[in-house]
């Protein structure tokens, strides 16, 4: 089952956000989409549904959504080392939708919500637009004072974990997860973990879900989807598990149309991904591992760049504050290098000297991207 890189022409002809907004000549590496063709079983199931006009309402009470919940439970047990209860699984359209629902179900206006900084922008937007207050903890190296502020929060009701973390690719160790779980217990807060990137973790790092931390298991919600690792974000299907019956019941009190919405094609594609595409995923991970090494080697030639290679995700978070790009890193590279990187400023205040680079592309395109990046900085291609 081959991993096939799409050509520039194919990508530009598509509707995906990443390429459709990039003018001719620009290499986009901002939006978190992959530049690879669909895994063949996913393509087959989608083509077959379209051929047969099989795009009616899914039967949420007994058909594919129930199969999906069972598959999620089985796959999680096999690959993630903890055991979801199929009866406590929910199928939604999007992971961020599930977070919005959790905010409505488990917090009130004015409550505090723990997020890690830098923060995946839709999390911040959801928390703020619903009138909750973000409480930020650095994703790595939080100090005593920062922890004390969080421990002392009076109205902490939700601990949100982006794990692996977007944009840094950080994977939390067991001790860090236990500390966060302990905080949730002491504060009587619910834990919401977005594990959408959990299948892209590199050799040398072991991924543990916070759902496997016993102390907070009953108050923990985990959501994931095939959107990132199988590149089907437009199909809208997300799956999650509620660690306790009461937690689940409170979520289910929200109107059904608010908390559901997965489409027939998204469900079918997710089942195909999780049932039949492990070989494809292995190849993708190998390619992304090669790309990650390439990015790491490349960045090591630039003393002014600070970069911690990601343990998971296909995203590189680059600290360019000591470079000529510091004041607006995104604008600098768009103008001088014809490459689009995700601006750091969208991940939090005072982060305009950072950018997020998506390296989920072919080796050839990654080489062009890095070459342009290096030239824009100091005329060097970074090859030393
Ligand atoms: C951490 C994280 N969560 C969620 C999403 C989007 O998923 P969804 O459309 O299911 O909300 C992304 C997309 O890049 C992501 O990186």
Automatic annotation (TrEMBL):
Looking at the record's lineage, which domain of life comes first?
Answer: Bacteria
E.C. designation(s): 4.4.1.13
What general EC class does the enzyme of this chain belong to? lyase
Q: Has UniProt tagged this entry with the keyword Transferase?
A: yes
Keywords from the UniProt entry:
Aminotransferase, Lyase, Pyridoxal phosphate, Transferase
In this protein, which residues make up the domain named Aminotransferase class I/classII large? Answer: 98-373
Q: Which GO terms describe its molecular function?
A: cysteine-S-conjugate beta-lyase activity; pyridoxal phosphate binding; transaminase activity
Q: Which cofactors does it use?
A: pyridoxal 5'-phosphate
Q: Family per UniProt? A: Belongs to the class-II pyridoxal-phosphate-dependent aminotransferase family. MalY/PatB cystathionine beta-lyase subfamily.
What is this protein identified as?
cysteine-S-conjugate beta-lyase
